[in-house]
């Protein structure tokens, strides 16, 4: 049987690691009165790959935006490395956000797009260039630095967006449905790349998806959210060896996790629609 609901062990250090970002009774009511999040308690630990999944409107993006400090909670608190957001920079920590849309500058070449965060931070040009090229190599795009975004496929553009996030060497990576618009084959390939990158860097990652398969393949922990207002419904630990590959996807355990998760999602979806 699978270990559901916060099993005590996972096969890397994250279970015991200190929290990187924490929602403490965090609530969000938008200015038009929409209650997007009921008080939510959620701690993401160092080197964890945590995925949020749940019906549309359950507050996944809201949680990510709170974690990125793009919006403020209406009540409760968010802590980063057990401190306030202001202390992140002075401690030399960084976070990066990847959106569903790669949001590249069409007039700039791939290298210019990837360098943007470094140029904004006034990193000297030769160093920025070296780091941009290294980030592009990491996502399998060496040789494309001088292309324009329009010359790339959707999957390649998404890789550029990930390279732009990685170039700052973030300590916390927030990804909101980054592969949602891609075909399944490309998505599986990028998922496999992402697992490798995450494993190499032990990069604390919070990921949002609507795909059960993607959630199970990528995550050390999956948080299922329910809607109206958004809240944590249940948590599933995916206690499997890392880094994962196609063999895990083909395994009976993978299917078992997916079945269990699918059952939980059916519960929250029927509660949301009243069906
Ligand atoms: N800026 C905003 N102003 C008002 N309401 C908002 C705002 N952003 C989100 N909401 C509302 O808050 C709730 C949660 O939205 P959120 O975008 O976090 O959900 P989600 O789980 O990411 O959905 P999806 O899966 O469709 O991306 C929804 O009811 C949404 O309509
Ligand atoms: Mg969303």
SS content category: alpha/beta
Ranges with pLDDT <50 over ≥5 residues? 1-11
**Sequence of strands across the biggest β-sheet:** 5-6-7-3-8-9
Helical proportion? 25-40%
* Beta-strand content estimate: 15-25%
**CATH architectural arrangement of the largest domain:** 3-Layer(aba) Sandwich
Count of helices? 9
Report the order of strands and helices: EEEHEHEHHHEHEHEEHH
Distinct small molecules = adenosine-5'-triphosphate, magnesium ion
At the first level of CATH, the class of the largest domain is Alpha Beta
Number of domain units? 2
How far is it from the N-terminal to the C-terminal residue, by CA? 29 Å
CATH fold-level name of the largest domain: Rossmann fold
List the quaternary state of the chains: single chain
The best one-word shape is globular
- What does the average pLDDT come to? 90
Radius of gyration: 19 Å
Total beta strand runs: 9
* The CATH H-level homologous superfamily of the largest domain: P-loop containing nucleotide triphosphate hydrolases
Largest sheet, in brief, is:
6 strands, mixed
Give the helices and strands, then pairings:
Layout lengths: L18 E11 L5 E11 L3 E5 L6 H8 L7 E6 L5 H5 L4 E4 L11 H11 L4 H14 L15 H13 L5 E5 L7 H18 L2 E5 L3 H7 L2 E6 L4 E7 L8 H4 L2 H22 L2
Parallel strand pairs: 3-7, 3-8, 5-6, 6-7
Antiparallel strand pairs: 1-2, 1-4, 8-9
Adenosine-5'-triphosphate (ATP) binds next to helix 1.
């Amino acid at each position: 049987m699978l270990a559901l609901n916060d099993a005590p062990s996972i096969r890397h250090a994250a279970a015991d690691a200190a929290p990187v970002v924490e929602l403490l009774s965090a609530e969000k009511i938008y200015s038009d009165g929409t209650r997007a999040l009921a008080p939510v308690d959620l701690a993401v630990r160092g080197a964890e790959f945590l995925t949020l999944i749940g019906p549309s409107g359950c507050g996944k993006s809201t949680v990510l935006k709170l974690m990125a400090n793009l919006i403020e909670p209406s009540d409760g608190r968010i802590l980063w490395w057990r401190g306030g957001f202001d202390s992140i920079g002075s401690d030399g920590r960084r976070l990066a956000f990847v959106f569903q849309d790669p949001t590249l500058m069409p007039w700039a070449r791939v290298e210019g797009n990837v360098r943007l965060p470094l140029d904004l931070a006034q990193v000297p040009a030769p160093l920025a260039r070296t780091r941009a090229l290294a980030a592009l190599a990491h996502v399998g795009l060496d040789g494309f630095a001088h292309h324009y975004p329009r010359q790339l496929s959707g999957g390649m553009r998404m890789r550029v967006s990930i390279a732009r996030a990685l170039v700052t060497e973030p300590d916390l990576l927030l990804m909101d449905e980054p592969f949602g618009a891609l075909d399944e084959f490309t998505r599986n390939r990028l998922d496999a790349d992402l697992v490798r990158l995450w494993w190499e860097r032990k990069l604390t990652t919070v990921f949002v998806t609507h795909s059960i398969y993607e959630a199970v393949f990528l995550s050390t922990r999956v948080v299922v959210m329910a809607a109206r207002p958004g809240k944590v419904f249940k948590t599933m630990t995916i206690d499997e060896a890392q880094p994962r590959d196609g063999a895990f996807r083909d395994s009976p355990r993978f299917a078992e996790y997916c079945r269990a998760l699918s059952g939980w999602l059916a519960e929250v979806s029927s509660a949301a629609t009243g069906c």
